[in-house]
Amino acid sequence: MTHPTLIAGDWGTTQLRLYLCGGEQVIATKTGRGIGALQRSAAEEFEAAANEWLATETIEHIVLAGMVGSRNGWLETPYVSCPASLDDVRAAFGTLTHRGKQIAIVPGLSCTSPLGSPDVMRGEETQLFGALQLRESLRSGRHVIALPGTHSKWAAVEDSHVVNFQTALTGELFALLRSHSTLLKAGATTSSAVDTNSFEAGVQASKSAALVQQLFQVRSRQLVEGWSADRASSFLSGLLIGSDVDSAVRSLAPAHVTLICEPSLADLYSRALATYDIALERLDGAECVLAGLRALAA
């Protein structure tokens, strides 16, 4: 019988995910509200999710990563400056005590981005270090790792250190423009399916002019050429992802990209990267988070 020794938590803005781990096994999982959706204190939310484990299991370590360490979280934990290694992050844990158990809060990272501006991440660093645990080939030399999402991150990793990174508001902009702008027809509904041809047309268009000069055709093509809302939405996605990828390729010059995200988003970024003839590998985001939390708790 495996005795649990670790509670690992990925606590982002929208959701809390807890893993009860014994050795290399996940014994059980729990979910709760994210930091941005709390209706009670963070301590109460954690207690509601983990109380059964705390009462009945042998817990040696509790490690929480993500927005739990932000100024709106349970305990604000300062960023670690890049370049940063797993050991650097571990040494900067924030700590608090809950029901007699010490909880380690993983700090985020800060850097001067390849664009010359300050940048930060909180949560994605755990995925980056998890990727290094899952792929030994990433631990030496220089690598570019992309974490597409609401705020997409592109990180340069050298010899197991996160050297710098840049952020694009790709997912957030897509949600805002699709739902709260004039680009799509008033009242139009779109499905989750992607029109591949329209998406790829958006990717190509993103290379030919500035994004702000390309966006309005999402609307004008509906009015003049009769595009459906789904087709226009896919073109918008291509414009934004294409712009994100183009900027990252210019600033980071990757020969190979490791993608960490869920499969449908990886498919879209793969299509955009394919236009540059860049080799890529995919890793699952949840697996990377768990591997990173385990490594940090070791």
In short:
With 298 residues, the protein is of the alpha/beta class. The protein is built from ten helices and 14 strands.
Bulk shape: globular
CATH architecture heading of the largest domain: 2-Layer Sandwich
Instruction: Assign the CATH class of the largest domain.
Output: Alpha Beta
Tally of domains: 2
Largest beta sheet: what is the strand line-up? 3-2-1-4-7-6
The fourth-level CATH homologous superfamily of the largest domain is 2-keto-3-deoxy-galactonokinase, C-terminal domain
What's the CATH topology name of the largest domain? Nucleotidyltransferase, domain 5
Structural class: alpha/beta
DSSP, total strands: 14
Notes on the protein architecture:
The radius of gyration is 21 Å and the shape is globular. It has a six-stranded mixed β-sheet with strand order 3-2-1-4-7-6, with helices on both faces. The protein has a five-stranded mixed β-sheet with strand order 12-11-10-13-14. It starts with 5 loop residues before the first strand and ends with a helix. By secondary structure, it is of the alpha/beta class. The protein is 39% helix and 27% strand. Helix 4 (170-180) runs antiparallel to helix 8 and helix 7 (217-225) runs antiparallel to helix 8. The mean pLDDT is 94. The relative contact order is 0.13. It has two domains: 1-107, 2-Layer Sandwich (Nucleotidyltransferase, domain 5), CATH 3.30.420; 111-298, Nucleotidyltransferase, domain 5 (2-Layer Sandwich), CATH 3.30.420.
